[in-house]
Amino acid sequence: MRYRKDIEGLRAIAVLSVMAYHALGEAAHNSWISGGLVGVDVFFVISGYLITSILLREKDRGSLSLQSFYIRRIKRIIPTLLTVVGVSFIVGWIYFLPKSLQSLAESGISSLFFFSNIWFFFEDSYTAQASMLKPLLHTWSLSIEEQFYLIFPLLFILPIKKQYISLVIILLLISSLTATVLYSASSPDQVFYLPHFRAWQLLLGSLAALIHQHKPLCFSAASGALFSGIGLSILLLSFYFLGAGTPGYYKLLPTLGTFLIILSSYSGNITQKILSLQPLRYIGLLSYSLYLWHMPLWAFARYRYDELSLSTHLILLALCFGLAIITYTLIEMPIRKAKPKHNKIILAGLAGVTGILISIFFITINNAGFPQRLGKAVSLFENLDGQLINPIDNKSCNNRELHELCSFNSETPYRLVLIGDSHANAISSSIFKLAKKFGYGFIQSTQNSCPHIKNSFEAGALDDTASELCHSRLAVINDFLDTKRDIVIFSARLMNSANTERQNNPAVYENKKNSLVLTLENLKRRSLGLITIGPTPELNYSLPYQVHKELRSLPAELIAQKFKQSKAYAIDAEEFSQQAAALQSAYNSITIERYRQISPQAIFCDNSVCRTHNDFQLYYYDTNHLSIYGAEALNKNIEVAVRELSR
Fold this sequence. Notes:
The chain is mainly alpha-helical. It contains 27 helices and 8 strands. About 60% of the residues lie in helices and about 5% in strands. It is elongated and about 85 Å long. The model has no long low-confidence stretch (mean pLDDT about 85).
């Protein structure tokens, strides 16, 4: 297979688009680079083409060896990956809170064993804001490639003719693409992360390699120029028009564009002259190192700073290129070009470094991220950072299917039924403790971004399918409520949405307000009593991260004093009162008996500020969710309301 200068240019375009997308973060969704993740699709097609071309060439020569193939892959992938993962952990040790460091160690293990796509699939959606704080999130694509490389070469060692290999590849491609089309709407995260939904992109590259084996099927010079131009146009337009949340089958456009460029491999056409320009080729050569370095750099920067200025982005870009050049020059190329006689030494060294890192990661996980790193400040951050789980009797009761809702002691005379979104889940463990204290049963139905109320204010942007599933929960809850023993506790993040609607769409606001009131009153009619919790004051930054950033460098003996004296973390009470007025108006409209509202404003706020912490406990675990300490601060008022409604 001859060297393809234009493919290096394609790699450059792909890596630069992904870097731009991750640099812009959440703003990328509405920017000129909204489809920046299309760069990953380009990489998949290129990888499928190159690997198949190599396997076909070696099969034709009779020199195909799986051992040699896998050794080349190890020498190509592992050294730079070990470097980036190791450096990321060192930086995480310095800056990360305990649970974040623990999560980094877990993702480090998944990255080095090439199952990080599976690991991150079970965490947040890729497009969630929190994903931009995960330094190794981008290794999901590397894991998919390596999973493909582990299985795909086996097809070429079978004693079958090349045309049958082609037939198998075409059938697998069609099957994978069909599955992607069928599941894109209902299971977008699966389609994004899982290898059988991505295989068609790699196999399309394989198909291009197979077509190149049959010269009569290749484009002529004139048609090649036309189709490569069409391919490049499709690809560039995809970066602008295809957002991160675009259904998976739309990725057929940039993937097909890449396929056309690769297939029309005539050096004389204008597209390939553009892609073969020396600056693009050089960036293409650095693309693997650039790809690995860019995500940790921007993730750590976002963790460390509230906002990234233009100058910060430029510094990160320069640092990314600097690190990529260093690793490419001193690590990647020397090991790739090392003579076969040195393979045993190289493999032993890589295995040793991998073993050391894996051991460190497991020790970090077993020690819960080493909270003692934070000295006397450790109690500030216990149970605050990381995923919101709030286990109840060692169970995670959030986001459960309706037939698997957490239910405890359901046969008791009274039950506390907690419903709502992640704000309700944030207080779930404290409500469960309250139920145990009273000897009551407890049922939890909470789902992220799902307040369980149709046609009302919603904090999360749910697609049609998710919204329908969300609203179906309310009907099921209504069916099992008991008017003689159930006290419903409702909490959801509705304040900002209600405030926005009242300002921009007064008529829509009134309709949604009425829907909320009617739904809550109906819940009361089907139960013994109703308690609503909210609106909750919100910050515009993550409280634990902010406190950690400002206090981490102080001497241990000054941390407590500095924290107690600080008013920087307070919320302006008047501003919050204005924001909460729209939702508060809805709660005030509930006129039924046996209803109580628990207002965090009355608990956390005075005339000037709303407190976000006490002497050494933070009331929030991020920007808007109450921590276990914030939830406990509400408990006294909730307990009084439960006693009154139980009479």
